[in-house]
Amino acid sequence: MDEERQATFGPDGELETEAPEATGTNDFGEETGADETDGGFNRYAVVSLLQKAIRRGDEEVSAWCAWELARSGFGWNLWDRLNTFVVEDLRAGAQAALLVGRYEDLAENWETESRRGQMAAVQAALVVARARGAREGANAVNAFHAIAKRRAEAHERGEEPSHSFPVTAADLSAGGRFDVALDGHTGEGARLNRSSPFFRVHGARVGPEGETEPSARWKRLYLALDEYEYTEAEIEHALAAVDADDRWSEPAFEE
Description:
Layout: E1 8-9, E2 15-16, H1 43-55, H2 59-71, H3 75-88, H4 96-110, H5 115-130, H6 136-157, H7 187-191, H8 196-203, H9 213-225, H10 232-239
Antiparallel strand pairs: 1-2
Helix pairs in contact: 1-2, 1-5, 2-3, 2-5, 3-4, 3-5, 4-5
């Protein structure tokens, strides 16, 4: 018995204080079939509806789908899909992934089919449904795979590809657009003798918001006390925010 269950009224109007036991039957007293929920729905259809409801921000339908899966013994499927949805269907950076993980831990401690486990499932579904929907990860992966295929086909024909990645081999070479990436952490950067100072002055810059006040203060102190000597111009550049309209250009300082 779920000790936290509150008194509720059942469908016959009688006061209920205990969670119903799993009987292998649906709400109508009929034996459940394979992948059938307690409400008589197909599990796969409910999972699919849950994802569509989350994408469209329909909180009520999302909550119902989570509850239906949780109470029907398909909690394992629910949590697997919710964790997938936060990757596939939400804007990157959403706090939903952390919250869903916490609710999943609570549901497992309480058992997902219990009343509190069901509430944790509903809460998690609401978190995801209320978050900013955006299929950034999925769309990026699909687009990059499509470009890779077209590039390979064009290469086989000896033609220039109709589409290319946002980074070319020329870009990622010395003197290229992303030259700053070739610091001492890379073979090419080591060959160019780009030791720690190059990284600290060029590679560790952030932006376009720039460093926070304490971070800038600590970095300035670190550069002043470092074993390498930096010019004032190098220090100011190391602390400067990256230009939002020109994120990759870097000046060359004389040795």
